[in-house]
Structure prediction request, 353 residues.
Amino acid sequence: MGPFTLFAAASLAIQGVTALSIVPTNKPFVRRAWTSLSLAERKEYTEAVICLSKKPSMIPAGQIPGAINRRDDFTAVHINQTFGVHLDAVFLGWHRNFLYLYETALRKECGYTGYQPYWDWTKSASNISAYPLFDGSKYSIGGDGSYDPSTGDYDLGSYHFAHGTGGGCVQSGFVTQLELHLGPIPIAALFDQVLPANWTLRNNHCLRRDFNVPVAEQFTNSTSIAHLLAAPDIGEFQSRLSGVGNAPPGPHTAGHLQIGMDMFDVFSSPNDPAFFFHHSNVDRMWTIWQSRDPLRRQFALNGTTLNYDPAGAPIASLLTEENWGVLGKPKTMLELMSNHLFEFNYVYENMEG
Prediction:
């Protein structure tokens, strides 16, 4: 289905439900870069994350014993959905709502008055530890992990990367107060398409990071972002964003890799608060790309509902329904394609890329 057909189908669907006020009338809220927040605003955010880690899980007792608190709920849902929401047509939309649900939990359950900030990768590419989000101060989300020489290197298809400057537990920032209960899950599970039998069990561990500046400098610099936003269609945008097969890692993959360890676990990466800043910027990239040609791009989809788009997998459409377990109600892809329709009503502070 081509982009014009998708746009027409979406337009018809929208016209059929305009009485339900799917176009928000309130002023959109603004997601800002972490560096635009005052120190007080940054502190309010980190305190809300701590608050969420103290709220009990909403997952039915006994279903996932390792889900102890509300942060665990987000990690558990992400683990459980991984095989259907990465490297496929629903990746961007599913994560758009996942981010919105996390932002909503911070606000409604923990009194946070702001919105989910984003991490502008280009501003930290040359020195991750100097960037205010990761500088280790009390106004950051913590710094690098302690150096662990036993940390292995990273292999991504035909690309090999030496491990970074950490590998151990994060020693600074509010994240030292967080105990993780789910994961890690071996990357082999992604290729086998089978979760370990014990993935639901509690596994207490610290948050680990392994900052990797060479990866950041090469794959999340301004040139990389310009290349991403110059993608001519949604299929190419998705390929440039993540990188698949023998392609170099795109900014999405490189963002996970440059933080490393828990953040690089494709299943349990929401364990690291950096995940939500990272995916806020992923969503910003998609929003910018869509805005540059909304007629062709706003409702454009390409691919299936399974990782790597295997032959015979269901083709994604605007009527494809996605779910987020205990986190929120199911939604169709149509409801996920715009930042200013249905439940969504937000913009980003910087829409230039």
